[in-house]
Amino acid sequence: MADDVLITAAIDARQFDVDATLAAGRVTAIVGPNGSGKSTLVGLVSGELRPDRGSVSLGLRVLSDAAAHVPTHRRPIALLAQRPLLFPHLDVVDNVAFGVRSRGAGKTEARERALRELDAVGAAPLASRRARALSGGEAQRVALARALATDPAIVLLDEPLASLDVATAGAMRALLAERLPACGATVALVTHDPLDIWTLADDLVCLEAGRLVESGPIADVLARPRTGFLADLSGVNLLEGTADPHDPAANGVLVGDDRVLGLWEGPEDAVGGQHVMATFAPSAVALFRTPPAGSPRNTWGVRVVDVDPRGATVRVNLTVANGQRLSADLSAPGAAALSLAPGDQLHAQVKATQVFLYPRH
Ligand SMILES: Nc1ncnc2c1ncn2[C@@H]1O[C@H](COP(=O)(O)OP(=O)(O)OP(=O)(O)O)[C@@H](O)[C@H]1O
């Protein structure tokens, strides 16, 4: 039975103060901008770091607090980092068996366990190869087998695909998607890649400047992002504003002097002055040189920041009057017809039915 990992811990020198839970038997993606505290969180769970205040526990077992600190090698954890860090002079099966033996198993038992795990990751044919003779992708597969062969209660993955090429990373991602849920451990995955989050993780913990800013099931957190970082991760535009104090029931949000109309997603009715988020897809944004005729809804003046061709579409990065960012994805011919340049003043239009409004919290 897997256990929750509870982190309620502060490290003063790093201005880190986070209260987060990694749910038992689930994969939690740890995300956030550079320097937000992801590695610090992992270091607290691995035992490499000790909190100045608070505690780290696995279920009812305290791993670190003011009175106690279980050292890394006594924690039931396995770490898979960007580099596989195998012993180059040992063969593959001995590399995998090493971890099992260090947990107290005998030689034969450790070897059998290693071979089973190598088979599970599709690396059985490599068993007698020296680790130094493996490719990067093969070595990472073996490192995964070594991590899981110890039957850890916690698996910590720190950007495990970041040093692999695209094709190898894809195969490794598929392997992780199969093995992580099957291993039964509580898993933390540090990543910058939205694909890893969508394909591997169940839950998400988002840190910024050493604080927890959002957590919960992936679909909930990314469907209704509440920070610019999470909006970028889910590929949507996010404008923040306040519910119109004169007419909160009209589903109007004021972003500076611009009015943004959309579908209100509650849970309660908007209250005038309330902090509200508006999200919509870049593909929902149309751009015009002259104010478009017809429906007056959701037309804002925008300024072009830059233009980024992406195959069949062109991403146009823009700012609205009060400086907030948004993007529009246009077809290549559509963008060419507008002949866009940075600094151009345009009109952006979005249908109200394609804008989702929800409270900040
Ligand atoms: N050894 C250290 N001593 C003091 N402060 C540190 C140390 N290592 C990191 N920090 C600080 O702690 C904060 C969190 O850093 P951390 O490395 O955990 O962030 P991160 O989210 O993992 O970043 P990245 O995405 O760049 O790896 C940062 O302000 C960083 O400067």
From TrEMBL:
<dbReference type="InterPro" id="IPR003593">
    <property type="entry name" value="AAA+_ATPase"/>
</dbReference>
<dbReference type="InterPro" id="IPR050334">
    <property type="entry name" value="Molybdenum_import_ModC"/>
</dbReference>
<dbReference type="InterPro" id="IPR005116">
    <property type="entry name" value="Transp-assoc_OB_typ1"/>
</dbReference>
<keyword id="KW-1003">Cell membrane</keyword>
<dbReference type="GO" id="GO:0016887">
    <property type="term" value="F:ATP hydrolysis activity"/>
</dbReference>
<feature type="domain" description="Mop">
    <location>
        <begin position="293"/>
        <end position="359"/>
    </location>
</feature>
<dbReference type="GO" id="GO:0005524">
    <property type="term" value="F:ATP binding"/>
</dbReference>
<keyword id="KW-0547">Nucleotide-binding</keyword>
<keyword id="KW-0500">Molybdenum</keyword>
<keyword id="KW-0813">Transport</keyword>
<dbReference type="InterPro" id="IPR017871">
    <property type="entry name" value="ABC_transporter-like_CS"/>
</dbReference>
<dbReference type="InterPro" id="IPR027417">
    <property type="entry name" value="P-loop_NTPase"/>
</dbReference>
<keyword id="KW-0067">ATP-binding</keyword>
<keyword id="KW-1278">Translocase</keyword>
<dbReference type="GO" id="GO:0015689">
    <property type="term" value="P:molybdate ion transport"/>
</dbReference>
<protein>
    <submittedName>
        <fullName>ATP-binding cassette domain-containing protein</fullName>
    </submittedName>
</protein>
<keyword id="KW-0472">Membrane</keyword>
<dbReference type="InterPro" id="IPR003439">
    <property type="entry name" value="ABC_transporter-like_ATP-bd"/>
</dbReference>
<dbReference type="InterPro" id="IPR004606">
    <property type="entry name" value="Mop_domain"/>
</dbReference>
<dbReference type="InterPro" id="IPR008995">
    <property type="entry name" value="Mo/tungstate-bd_C_term_dom"/>
</dbReference>
<dbReference type="Pfam" id="PF00005">
    <property type="entry name" value="ABC_tran"/>
</dbReference>
<dbReference type="Pfam" id="PF03459">
    <property type="entry name" value="TOBE"/>
</dbReference>
<feature type="domain" description="ABC transporter">
    <location>
        <begin position="1"/>
        <end position="234"/>
    </location>
</feature>
